[in-house]
Each structure stands twice: as C-alpha cells, then as structure tokens.
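User: Can you write out an input/output pair for a complex, sequences first and structure second?

Assistant: Here is one pair. Inputs:
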Amino acid sequence: MTPLAHSPHAHAQVSVGQVMATVMLALTPATLFGFWLYGWPAINVWLVSLGVALLAESVTLRIMGRPIKAALMDGSALLTAWLLALSLPPWAPWWLAAVGSLFAIVIAKQIFGGLGQNLFNPAMAARVMLLISFPLEMTSWIGAVPITSLAAPGFVDGLAITFAGTAPADGISSATLLGQVKTDLGRGIGLDQILAGLYHPDAMAWGQRAGSLGETSALLLLAGGGVLIWRRIITWHIPVAMLAGVVVPAFLASLIDPAHAPGPLYHLLSGGVILGAFFIATDPVSSPNAASGQLVFGLGCGLLTWIIRTWGGYPEGVAFAVMLMNAATPVIDRYLKPRIYGRDRKGVALTPAKESGK
Amino acid sequence: MKLNLSRRSEVRTLIMNGGECEPYLTCDDRLMRERAAKIVEGIRIIRHATGAAEVMVGIEDNKPEAIESMMAAAQGTEVRVVAVPAMYPMGSEKQLIQVLTGQEVPAGGRAADIGVLVHNVGTAYAVRDAIRFGRPLVSRIVTVSGGAVGAPGNLEVPIGTLASDLVRACGGLRGTPARLVLGGPMMGMQVSGLDVPIVKGSSGVLALTHAEVEQTQPGPCIRCSSCVRACPMGLLPLEMAARIRIGDPVGSVDWGLKDCIACGSCSYVCPAHIPLVHWFNHAKGELAARERLKLKNEATKRLADERNGRMERIAREREEAARQRAAKKAAAEAAKKAAAEAAKQAEEVA
Ligand code: SF4
Ligand code: SF4
C-alpha cells in the first residue's frame, strides 16, 4: 500500500536550492564585471569567501549533529559568502574574506539557529564587523584596472596581492567617490569643485569606479534585480521603497543646499545602494513578510543609508542601515500584517454591507 | 442545504460558479461547453426560486470555449456571463464573490449575509433535470486525469461507479502511479486503491506520477513569504506554522488560523516544501479536540461541583439534625431534671 500523504497532491516546481541558484545567477553578470574591472585579486577574494563559507558551514553542522549534505546543497551559505565577497574591497587580503565568511556563517547564521532563524542578514553583519574591526583594510580601495589593461596584475601578481599582502602599485589605490566627497566636504571644499573631476554618471552607471567588488555596476545589478522580480523571487516593494528612501531626501536636500548635498543620481550610483536594494535588503529571512511591512522596511533602509552618508562617521551606510532595519523586522511583522479576507485591518469581522449599504 | 438557507436571508445576487474548483479538473468546463443551454435553464430556475435580482456566471478566462458557449446560451436572458482571472482558488466561493461583486464575506459569516448565493454550474444542471424531468441526481461528470492515466478525459457516470472502472475506460494506468487521489489535487483525498465508488461530490479521479507529486523532505522555512503572497485569505502561513511547530495551536489562531480555508496554496508554493496546510488542518483538529475536552471538563466539573454541594448539604442537614437531636435531648434532660427537682422539692415540702 502506498503511504498516506496529505493534500495538496501536487507541488510547484520550486525548492530553496532553486531560489538560491537563481539569485546567484542574477548576481553573475555584475560579479563577472567586477572580476574584469579589478582583475585576479578580485577573483581570489571571491573564491576564498565561498570556500571558507562552505567549510565553515559543514564544520558547524557537523558539530551540531545536523545533516550536512541537505544544508550544503541548498546553496544558502554560498549565496551569503557571495554577497559578502561582493561587498569587500576587491584587493582585500585573503584573511579579510576568510574572517568575514567565518563570522557570517558561524556567528550570524548558525548560532542563531541556522537557515531561516537569523535575525540579521549574515553578509551584512560580517561586513559591519569587518568595517569596525579592520577599518583600514576595509577601506583600501583601488581604481578600475580592467584585467585586459596593462596596469592589471597578472595571475601570479594577483596571488601575491591577495595572499602575501603585496601593496598595490602607486597610482592604483584610490578613494571611493563617497569617501572622497565626505573628506573634502569636511575640509570645506564646495561640492561642484569636488565633483568636477570625479563624477561621471554614465561611466559610473556601467561601474567604472572605485568601490567594492560587486557593487559598482548599477546597470548590471539592475538587470539582475529585474530577473529576480520577474522570477518572483522578490517583489518590487523593498527595492523600490529603498531607492525612494534614498532619492527623496537626497533630492530635497540638494534643492535646499546644492553646495553641500549631492543629488539623487549621485547617491544611487555610488556605494552599494543598488546592490543593497535588490540583493541584500530583500534577503527573505531578515525582512518583513507583508507588503506593507516591506515598504516600511525598504524606506527605512534607504532613509538610514542617506542619513549615515550625510551625517554619520562613515561615508557609506548601506550595511548599517540594513542591519538596523533587520533589528526592527520582528516589530514591523508584528504590527503590519496583511488584511485578512472578511476582516478589517484590526482583524475584526466586517459588518455585512447590506446594512451599511442601506 | 444552501437553497434552503436563501429563504431565510434575502438574496439579491445569485452567482454561478463556473470556475473549476481545482487545477486538473475539467468536468465543469466540459459541461458548460456542451450543455450550456441546459445549464442556463437550470440557472433561471434557481433564480426564480431564490428571487435574486442579479445573476452572474463567473468563468475563468482560461476556458474561452466555455465562456463562448455560455454567452451564446445566455443571450437574451437575465443571466450575465463574466470572465474571471484563472487563478486558484477562484472556484472558492469567497474568492469568486470578491472578484464578481467587490464585496467580501465577513469573517465567521456566510455569503448569504451579504445577499449573495453561490451555486455550481453542475448544480444548475442537476436542478434542471430534477425540475423538468423529475430525474434525481443519479449521475455526474467526473474528470479522470493525471500523468499516469492513459487517455485522460471526462465521463458522465452513474453515482456508485467504481473509480477503477473509470480509469479503465480512460485507457487504464500507465505504469504504477505515485499517488491516487479522489477529488482535486489541492484538496482531494488520497486513496490507497481504486475500488471506491463515485459519490455526489467526487469531481475527479487522479492518478499522479512521481514527477507531479514532487515530494521531498521539508526543509527549514526561509521566510521567503511566498506563502503570504499565495494565500487568498491574506494570512501569514509561516507565522501560523511557526506557532504550531512549537506546539502552540492557540497562538496560531492569533495569526488567523480560523480564517484558513485549507486551500493548500501555501503548501503548493513553499520552496522549503513545508506541509503547511497539513499542519493547519492538524492544528484545527487539535483545537477542536481541546475545545471538546474543555467542554467535557467543564461538564465534569459541574457535575463534581453539584455532587460536592449535595454532599455538603447532606452533611449540613445531618449535623443540623444531630444538633437538634442533641438539643432535644438536652431539653428533655433539663425537663427531666427540672421535673425531678420539682418532685424532690415537693417531697421535701411534703
Ligand atoms: S513559503 Fe515556506 S519557506 Fe517560504 S515563508 Fe512560507 S513557510 Fe517559509
Ligand atoms: S491553506 Fe489556509 S493558510 Fe494556506 S493559503 Fe489556503 S487559506 Fe491561506
């Protein structure tokens, strides 16, 4: 006799592994672009992150006596490490990536109870930890040195940069636009003067700028985000709200004080806003469930990002903003639920329209 | 039953459900395509019986032929045929009402509360046969489908026919099916064999292959909220499931368990393959059992209380009686004593 099973007797062709794989696929163009832009060291950083994450995941699962294979196959550890790698400086030393991955998997994910239980987005928790512990390494940016160009390090040089800590040649290290603007504004230089030689929106949209490994190409990230929405892995709510949370205050501020507050396009194209809006804030585990809650969450992420960039001590605020909103998620979920059919927002049964209609 | 109900509350809108209850099932579709005129006649009979002012037939827009033939049949009558989006669970009464009238059935209420009555097109067909020819419901149309059926199709069969006969008539089984289901794939019931009869409510016989069943081990919830988006009732299946998992079915009621219509949409889409609706049904059963237990306990407690009260009363009465007896005795003794005294005195005097 066949074992009895419960309805439904059919299931959509989806699985957690497929979801994760689709997200990784959507990240691939921007990642490949990052490899091209920053050369071999970037590839090394990416490999180290992913490798260490897999190792950390299997060791912790083994210690806790949980099934290893199923958890490894779902791809969640890989995705976490991937996102972390994309938010590291491309020429970061290998140990930075390794420590970050370890922290993301062991502390931010498994100690909280594993997949689905973590309060914070593991990749962002790791990035914030690294930023606080190793501020120098985490802000050693390099300018674009496409792998096909002469200035790019070869494979062996790349290994030296990642694993032996060889300092990059002069003229390659560079500041991010956000960092530069923040420092110069602090020195009292006017915005138009700072931006004059630095700011080329069209080149930046493609990703020709200094920044983290995978956050630079706004267009490729947007395309990836589009794929996620099309595949119904994420909905538009969080990304749109988060972008709005950055754009609206930036626009208002630049109207009020054009000499010191850069406009919305500058904020969108610099730092990790696009990556954050489509790939990080949308992490299902640490974001709210209801559409209304997701809007609030996204707006909060955007707004906090802008606030930290404008007044905070760090030039970039996406990671902090996302983590702060992660912490608010349980509260948002508690109060913003979808309206139940046949009830009003407070959950009280509707009164029949027959009476109210008459 | 529903026809009776309508007499009690006034029905303004009659909705005929031409939306198939579940995927796979096509029996209503075929009925509407081929016997539209008879259905329309049945609808008009029902409308007459209920006195509804408005009649709508909602048909999912993935059935163009059915819509066309129903429209043709309804030409010149008060019956209005409306195409509704094909989206499970459109065949569910509450969802159909919402799409067609824009109103929602209040929680805990019935459709009749908002002046709506919903019937299936199959019912209209049966009503017509019953009223016109006095022919009771002795047959129905059943969908035989699933990847393991040789030639899937719809059959009109007498009620009581064995499911195995139906499958045989549809080309028999191809290989061993992974699962046999009576009803639809979302809410139907698994059966262990096909030696079961068709009853009034059997809409389908399905023999599903392994690929269709796609059964895998459930994994941890990744809070992807696919289930939230899928739920037609606006519930949070993942939160309800989280409460149930920790053995707190009462907590899941706060998140809407009582409004769950057990449609199975959430289980269907869950990438972690969590059997959500199964848990909900279990929790509902558990709650009902607790409710019963509570009632039983209350009844027992009441009986016990009454018994205690009785016992106390008896004890009190006994005590009372004892006291009275004692008092009487004392009084008697006192009287005796007094009498003796009096006698003694009298003696002394004498
Ligand atoms: S669909 Fe499944 S995995 Fe996704 S939130 Fe719902 S219960 Fe969790
Ligand atoms: S079974 Fe219940 S909780 Fe799940 S989708 Fe249907 S109504 Fe919603």
